[in-house]
Amino acid sequence: MSRRSPAVLVLPATLWLVVSWAWPLLLVLSMSFRTMDQVTFELSGFTLGHFRQVLTDPFYLDSLLRSVRIAAIVTLLSGLLGYPVALHIAQTTSQRARTAYTMILLIPIMISLVVTAFAWILILGPSGFINRTLSFLGLTSEPVQFLNSEAGVIAVLVYSFGPYMIINICTAIDKIDPAVIRAAQLHGAGPWRVFRSIILPLSFPGILSGGLIVFSLSAAAFVTPYVIGGNRVKVIPLQIYNAAVTTFDWPMAATLSILLLVISLALTALVGRYTERRFAAWLRGA
Amino acid sequence: MTSSPVLSLRDATKAFGGATVLKSIDLDIQQGEFVSLLGPSGCGKTTTLNIIAGFTSPDSGDVIINGQRVNDVPPHQRDLGMVFQGHALFPHMTCFDNVAFGLRMRKLAPEVIRERVLQALDLVRLADFSQRYPRELSGGQQQRVGLARALAINPRVLLLDEPLSNLDAKLRRAMQSELRSIHTKLRTTMVYVTHDQEEALTLSDRIALMRDGRIEQIDTPEGIYCRPQTRFVADFIGSSSFLRGIVAEVTGQGMRVRVGDAGSVLVAYDASLAVGREVLLGVRADRIRPVVPGPDTLRGRVSDRIFAGASTHLRVDLGQGDEIVAHLAEPPPAELVADAPVSIAVAPHDWIVLP
Q1: Quick check: B105 and A193 CB within 8 A?
Q2: Which among A2, A239, A275, B306 counts the fewest CB atoms within 10 Å?
Q3: What is chain B's mean pLDDT, rounded?
């Protein structure tokens, strides 16, 4: 085999990526700077108008902020709720129990988001499980409006994407050398100090990578806000859909898509920089 | 040693899933002593260390530190230090913070911590590396930081779990002498787990040789080497050959033991062995000399001659399945090659006589 063979082997995948990913992305990027004739759908000229509109028009600006807010809250909740779960799984020694936990974690990932969302309607609805429990306990006199609300969307997103957080944290905890924990114990650290000084900081890279995934997925989520939020919780992906399908304003859809992409990329770069600066020394050669 | 021991195990027993790994271990370690737990893998030495540390609790028996039963005291309250096989440094902390860890857990004043950390790093000659992270150090340096971390808290007992086994041979020897000088300087009580007999012999005040969950013999290095009490000990330490013999007579100089048709040898007198008693004779490979045939020598044939650098190994067949291996510092006469007849002699006190 020649030295060129690895390059030859990745060629099909590269071509496929160029055709299916790079080319459409370039199209979307160029479209965001064009003006479209509403009648003939013809693209022309070069304008920054769409970007200006998104960043000044409260209609779009609100969606942008709402998307970022929802993604941030979902990330935070996934971390807070997921960490103890990840810790418990990582400390489970029984192989059987671990397999069971993994299956449970994979269920939300494997089931279609549409199915998940509709199942949650039954839970969150006016006569759903939660509202019936609340009224049975006498805590509420009339049903709480979970559907068509940000809270409902956040709850379902945490359910759908939380497992990514748990899996990432769990992997990070698993990688901690048990002898390091024993060393901390023997040199005077009680259970809380072991967690605080050893386990938590050493699993931080897992929290960051899990957070990045959950944030990006939540910011880009369409099905959940669409089904649970009923087109009332206006997030960016919903606005993209509306612009492209309802008002046929393709340049606006393209602009919103690019902005969403930029937010995710910027966050990834930021986390990358932070990780590099903070953990470089002890991760070197890991 | 009349003072009460700083660390004791009383009748400690431990089983894992039906397999008993420790069978009634009794051990007393005095203040300032360096005791090695030596033995092949699976002999229970690491379990013993884990029981002392508190990572494992014994099924029965007691762990006593400074006269206090500590069975129910968790590891972080036992006031021990430990050096681990794979350094086990905190990867996200600098050397300084690693060494300071135990002191901070003890809530000492920052300036006291600073002083003791630098002192400990100075002791292992790494004072200039205090701001480095463990990954930026070599294996030997990492292990020295691990040692400094354990010593900084001035532990009642320092436990060492095969701390040098991941280092290469040359570095290992350098670390051995460093460890020795630190022990001489600080007189910290140390319990050292190893499977390396040479390491145990050079470092220890006493060696507890373990086998199948029991302490086979606990003695000074000289005692273990020169006066092994069982065949296992004689076999494990050094390179020994064993022969079956029968006590033939008691003479003025000692006892004469017959070894089959190969001849007879003179051994030191042992009142517990009567004439006619069958015994096991052991001899270290470096205590055997080829000699001219004569009384109290063994006759045999050379079955192999191997050049091994510092010494020449001579394998001698004594007939009836008995074989003896001699390591000779002086190259033996050239005619001693395979199949040549040879006589060998061993000084009476060099014979290990086991009932």
Answers
A1: yes
A2: A2
A3: 91
Task: Write the pLDDT tens digit of every residue in A220-275.
Answer: 999 999 999 887 889 999 999 999 999 889 999 999 999 999 999 999 899 888 88
* Chain A partners within 8 Å of B17 (Cβ): none
Per DSSP (E only), the strands in chain B are: 7-16, 19-29, 34-38, 60-65, 68-69, 80-83, 157-161, 190-194, 206-211, 214-219, 240-250, 255-259, 263-267, 278-284, 289-291, 298-308, 311-319, 322-328, 341-345, 352-354
Q: Report the C-alpha gap between A131 and B118 in whole angstroms.
A: 62
- Give the DSSP H or E segment for A276: helix A250-283
Q: Quick check: B149 and B102 in contact, CB under 8 A?
A: yes
Distance CA(B130)–CA(B99), nearest Å, equals 9
The answer to whether B200 touches B222, Cβ cutoff 8 Å, is no
Distances (CA, A) of B279 to A17, B242, B246, B253: 81, 10, 6, 18
Q: List the single residue in B84, B93, B134 with the smallest CB-CB distance to A179.
A: B84
pLDDT, one tens digit per residue, over B20-68 is 999 999 999 999 999 999 999 889 999 999 999 999 999 999 999 999 9
- CATH, domain range A50-283: 1.10.3720.10
Q: State the pLDDT at residue B1.
A: 46
Q: pLDDT (tens digit, 9 = 90+) per residue, A77-115?
A: 999 999 999 999 999 989 999 999 999 999 888 988 889
- Cβ separation of B135 and A187 shorter than 8 Å? no
In one-letter notation, the amino acid at residue A54 is: V
Q: Which two tokens stand for residue A7?
A: 């390059």
Is residue A139's pLDDT more than 90? no
Contacting residues of B for A172, CB less than 8 Å apart: none
Instruction: Give the pLDDT band (50/70/90) at residue B237.
Output: confident
pTM to 2 decimals?
0.83
pLDDT digits (tens, 9 = 90+) for A154-168: 999 999 999 999 999
Sequence-distant (6+) residues with CB within 8 A of A222 are A237, A238, A241
Tokens of A206: 């897992």
In chain A, residues with a C-beta closer than 8 Å to the C-beta of B54 are: 186
Q: Which residues in chain B are closer than 8 Å to A283, comparing Cβ atoms? A: 135
Closest CA to A243 of A62, A96, A92, A59: A59
pLDDT of residue A283: 63
Nearest CA to B129 out of B139, B115, B116, B142 is that of B142
Q: Which residues, in sequence order, are bridge partners of residue A166?
A: none
How far apart are alpha carbons B208 and B39 in whole angstroms? 8
| Per-window interface: B 114-133 vs A, CB < 8 A | 133
Q: Which residue of B has its CA nearest to A187?
A: B102
User: Where are the extended beta strands (E) located within chain A?
Assistant: 35-36, 43-44
Q: How many C-alpha atoms does B47 have within 13 Å on its Cβ side?
A: 27
ipTM for this prediction: 0.83
